Amino acid sequence: MINFHGKTALITGGSRGIGRACALLLARFGCQVAITYQSNEAAAAEVIKSSGQHGLAAKAYRCDVTKLDEISSMAQSVVKDFGRIDVLINSAGISQIVAVPDLTEEDWDHMMSVNLKGTFFCCQEILKQMQIQKGGRIVNVASTAGQVGGFIVGVNYSASKAGVICLTKSLAKYALPSGVTVNCVAPGLIDTEMTSSYPRERVSSLVASIPMGRMGSADEVANGIAFLASDAASYITGTTLYINGGTYLG
Ligand SMILES: NC(=O)c1ccc[n+]([C@@H]2O[C@H](COP(=O)([O-])OP(=O)(O)OC[C@H]3O[C@@H](n4cnc5c(N)ncnc54)[C@H](OP(=O)(O)O)[C@@H]3O)[C@@H](O)[C@H]2O)c1
After folding, report:
1. Residue of 37, 157, 198, 235 marked catalytic
2. Residues 221-224: contacts with CB under 8 Å, at least 24 apart
């Protein structure tokens, strides 16, 4: 039985999609939740309202993960408010549909800045706190696009997510002595706001190639993340959990 009683989770990108589903699930499992959002304050407030229904503390913080000073002050505020951070889930991210010849330097830099740099510097900052506490769980959100290349999304997105998978392994080695595990999930096509803007014919064509014949839900990804963030995953670090409806079955 997964149990988060007495624990605090920090979830970046907790206002929507996969991050939102993680916040609601962990709160249901007895976890205090701190979520971050970039601009969608109203959505973040809704998540906090729902998470708080379980009688535990829940709070939202504005933080653009591309800005190191904002990550640092957000982390300090979370520790001040909750006293500790046991779990970090890095779900903040963006995607882009762009053809190779059209991809600009600005597209490349912005994608790397949010998905790769943001994920790393959130890990770096929160690891300091977890090292003081002598333990913790970090779960990063990568993508099948980072393993086999993207079908709909641009090269910049796939490369950023491949980077997330590799930084997860490197950080897992670094964090071993402090009792912190670092893992990631690689979701396939998930039904969230991110994918709602994708061209329908390309989504249908991709869905047709998924053995389970459908998109995944944010809740299904959150289930995998919750496992990796729990004590049940105590002997797992540096791994990538595929949540993709059997995509690699061939
Ligand atoms: N959906 C999929 O098919 C899929 C598949 C594989 C991997 N993923 C990955 O899963 C993660 C979550 O995706 P999702 O589908 O849940 O996306 P989503 O519904 O679009 O939510 C994205 C979240 O990231 C936040 N965010 C965006 N830019 C940010 C920035 N610069 N600083 C801080 N927060 C920022 C957003 O905050 P605001 O609400 O304030 O804008 C929002 O909370 C992403 O890393 C994505 O790449 C998604």
Report:
1. 157
2. 221/18, 221/21, 221/141, 221/185, 221/187, 221/190, 222/18, 222/21, 222/22, 222/24, 222/25, 223/25, 224/185
Question: Could you read off the pLDDT of 227-248 as tens digits, one per residue?
Answer: 999 999 999 999 999 999 999 9
List all residues whose CB is within 6 A of at least one atom of ligand 1.
13, 15-19, 37-40, 43, 63-66, 91-95, 114, 141, 143, 187, 189-190, 192-195
What are the structure tokens assigned to 164, written together? Answer: 């997330």
State pLDDT tens for residues 141-194: 999 999 999 999 999 999 999 999 999 999 999 999 999 999 999 999 999 999
Q: In angstroms, rounded to a whole number, what is the distance separating the alpha carbons of residues 2 and 62? A: 29
User: Do 18 and 192 meet the contact criterion of CB atoms below 8 Å apart?
Assistant: yes
Residue nearest to atom 2 of ligand 1 (CA): 190
Beta strand 87-90 pairing with 8-12: parallel
Ligand 1 centre and the CA of 194: distance in Å? 7
Determine which residue's CA is closest to atom 42 belonging to ligand 1: 13
As given in the structure block, the two tokens for residue 174 are 């670094």
Q: How far is the CA of 115 from the centre of ligand 1 (A)?
A: 9
Residue 206 has which token pair? Answer: 């991709």
Does residue 157 have an active-site annotation? yes
Tell me which residue has its CA closest to atom 44 in ligand 1: 93
Print the SS3 string covering 115-144: HHHHHHHHHHHHHHHHHHHCCEEEEEECCC
- Please name each of the domains of the chain with its CATH number: 8-242 (3.40.50.720)
